[in-house]
Amino acid sequence: MFTKFKRIYNEFPDTFRVLTLATFIDRLGSFILFPFFILYITAHFGVGMTEVGILFAIFAGGSILGSAIGGALSDKYGRRLLVIFGLVVSGTGSILMGIVNDLYIFYILAGLFGFFGDFGGPARQAMVVDLLPAEKQAEGFGILRVAVNLSAVIGPILGGFIATQSYMMLFIGDAVSSVITAFIVYGVIPETKPQKLDDKPEETVAKTFIGYKEVLKDWVFVLFLSVSAITVLVYMQMNSTLSVFLRDVHGFPELGFGLLLSMNAAMVVLFQFWITRKISKYAPMKMITLGTLLYMIGFGMYGFVSTVYMFFIAMAILTVGEMIAMPIGQRAAASFASEDKRGRYMAVYGFHWAIPTLFGVYAAGLIMDNISPYLVWYLAGILCLFSAVGFWLLHGPTKKRFSEVREASEVIEAPKIMEAPRVIEPIKEDLHEP
Question: Which whole number is the average pLDDT over 260-272?
């Protein structure tokens, strides 16, 4: 399997492979710190989960604004500069957060570094779309997910060892990984923003930001994100509410939950690329529907099962859903975007992750504490069912949309494709139906 993966991986451009390596290094630092971040906050500041929820809401709010500005600037000035800036700010923020001893200053830093640190997020996703043709984009996002999940397997192990020595070293490790990644991007990855091939004047900065209005007027794209946000609201419980539920209701130990998450990451590392390659020929919305139905089964099971082996079976089912839905969803989102608004589209795409973070964990906590912990998982299953229906209904409008974009590309852009072979094709109408 590894030999086959290596052969297929080598089919991708060198720049994309460097970007994958850089992503692995950057996320390795994140996963060294993240599993112990909440433990650090509650112990260091002597607070509970309410204050942690406030902290994450502040960070998410800053991230939303930062992504919006970063996406527009990446379309105006290019991807590379924004990615480097975000990495440097993120590394600086990690060091400062490890030093601060006042919770309210910590809140301020979270907002600031959520804002500035996320400048490069949309630019990095736009880089993938810039570098790969449409038929390779789902596989490309799948490869990046493998890199991220490989770091999720290794990072917590390293972090656990480092945490026994010093929590400050966790923050330093995250900062070092960000700086190394910034040097890689600076030294090796060129600017990927497509060159203008027509005589239209360059957009002003003001017009670039006004361009978000056109993105938000794209009702099919906005509807797709709205349905996707419901699944994010459910998915985010895996890394937050689920651990507390299993510990308090079923007496499932922290070590067991760590193994549960490690299994999730290991499955992605082993099978993500193979699954993505198998399903990429099918209609995107139907594949995302399938993935969401597996979410419904996996997350919903936690409301009904009570044995350890069933916890792992539920995680395996929802992980398969994750491997189907996420890379195909990223590819579909990228295919909505015109070439000149790619960064802004990917920024708005990021909102469907950030916005649920503002209230998702807090709302689940209220349900667990005041009504019933089982209700969280019943609602998770119901919400996933609604989302699956929504994605299924979007198959028709998106199929028509992708067909119209392709036809416009063939009529208007055909001469330019000869001049610039990296122009991204839209998802094609003739995708196989499952």
Answer: 82
> Who wins on pLDDT, 434 or 275?
275
The pLDDT assigned to 431 comes to: 35
**pLDDT tens by residue, 225-252:** 888 889 988 988 887 778 778 878 888 8
pLDDT band at 413; cut points 50, 70, 90: very low
Task: Quickly count: other Cβ atoms within 10 Å of residue 69's Cβ.
Answer: 17
Pick the CATH number of 13-189+205-419 from 3.40.50.1970, 3.40.50.720, 1.20.1250.20, 3.10.20.30: 1.20.1250.20
Q: Please, which residues have CB within 8 angstroms of residue 39's CB and are 6 or more apart in sequence?
A: none
